Amino acid sequence: MNTILIKQAKIVNEGLITEGDVLVKDGFIAQIGTNLIVDGAQIIDAKGNYLLPGVIDDQVHFRDPGLTHKGDIESESRAAVAGGVTSYIDQPNTVPHAVTQELLAQKYQNAAGRSFANYSFMMGGTNDNLEEILKTNPRDVAGLKLFLGSSTGDMLVDSSAAIESIFTHTPLLIAVHCEDETTVKNNLAHYKSQFGDDIPVAYHPVIRSEEACYLSSSKTVALAKKTGARLHVFHISTAKELALFDNSIPLAEKKITAEVCIHHLWFTDEDYASKRNFIKWNPAVKTAADREALWKAVLDDTIDVIATDHAPHTLAEKEQVYTKAPSGGPLVQHSLVVMLEAVREGRISLEKVVQKMAHNPAQLFQIEKRGFIREGYHADLVLVDCNSTWTVDASNILYKCGWSPLEGTEFHSQITHTLVNGILVYENGKVHELRAGQRLLFNRNE
Questions:
Q1: By CB count within 10 A, which of 46, 254, 258, 320 is most buried?
Q2: Apex CA 151: angle with CA 149 and CA 157, to 5°?
Q3: In which element (H, E) is residue 384 found?
């Protein structure tokens, strides 16, 4: 494998920014120092730009298999590395659903040799597959996903007995989508009686309301405390839910953790007027007050991880009437630049961005030798130029669906280089056709 020497970088790692060089050899970080000289190494002159550990996105839907008209492993992982995302955890609501060991294994086989970024796939839970769940190897599977409110697909787990049994018996990390199904259905019926199927999308956060989120997440957190389960709550969207989580202990000691997604930090309900179904997500984008509370929770460590819930749909699908337009949108190419924009605005430090998007996902999921710039770790690295202005448009969107809810947005930072396992897969606007992704492994003893 190539030896690469990254020179004169501002290295952002573990709460510090230091100037130096990083030597990459045989896929790993071999040396971190200053004024390094290595004969025969390929030189990348960082020119004082920032070197970050690659982003680890703990929640994506790459639509492969079964929904590949929207996206697939190759297209979406290509977009990921262009955005500085070097590892991802894909969700089980593909077709067929990954709810048996055989179907889960097929997803891993499908990704091998095709993914530009490192990958893991979550096992899916149902009302009646506990036996299959218990066969899951925690060494090479990220965790278990439960949809406790229906979303895209039909993987709703609504049996209280089944949920408690899963929480009681599995040692896996349990990641959950929390929305109370009865509340959502009743709200939807109310607005359908007024508008039929063409409900104005501005009512989406009223239908998938704060109360729907809180009812489900509070019940789930209580169950985790009762059973001792390892719980990770995906895409927190409301201020009210934040009281359920703790920032008084270190992440390594937490048994209940939380994630926020880019869209809940960027958009508010005022954006439905212009963005329409293109910012229709589950849980819904809510108020400016909710957004501010989420930002505060990121900064004070009540929220542990920032991710995307990347979930592409075609333009034609999103342009349907409200009840037929699916929820979700593509974000994995733009998550890091969104956060770099927040750094530029003074909302968050670059060190905190790295903590929430690289260090914490690695620690939370116990990912082996990734998420940090350390000697002996896999060389998953991203160089960013924080003084480069560009605009998101159709010409630079790499998602298979071909659109972004951020089209027309001007950013002031740009990813210049992405290395995955020591291989330069993205360089100055060009993705090299090198599918360097490896299956993630986890440091677990269960």
A1: 258
A2: 40
A3: strand 381-385
Q: Which of 106, 105, 94 is nearest to 140 (CA)?
A: 105
Residue with tokens 């160089």: 383
DSSP per-residue string spanning 39-74: TTPEEEE-TT-EEEEPEEEEEE---TTT-TTT--HH
The dihedral through the CA atoms of 146, 328, 363, 212 has a sign that is: negative
Residues whose CB falls within 8 Å of the CB of residue 163, separated by 6 or more in sequence, listed in order: 146, 148, 157, 223
Q: Residue ranges of the alpha helices (H) in 209-271?
A: 210-227, 262-266
* SS3 call for 385: strand
Sorted by sequence, the CB contacts under 8 Å of residue 142 that are 6+ apart come out as 58, 89, 120, 121, 122, 173, 365, 440, 442
CA angle 185, 122, 184 (to 5 degrees): 10
Which amino acid is it at 145?
A: K
| pTM higher than 0.85 | yes
For the chain (446 residues), the mean pLDDT of every run of 10, in chain order, is: 93 98 98 96 97 99 98 98 98 97 98 98 96 97 91 78 96 97 97 98 98 98 98 98 97 98 98 98 98 98 98 98 98 98 98 98 98 98 98 98 98 98 98 97 82
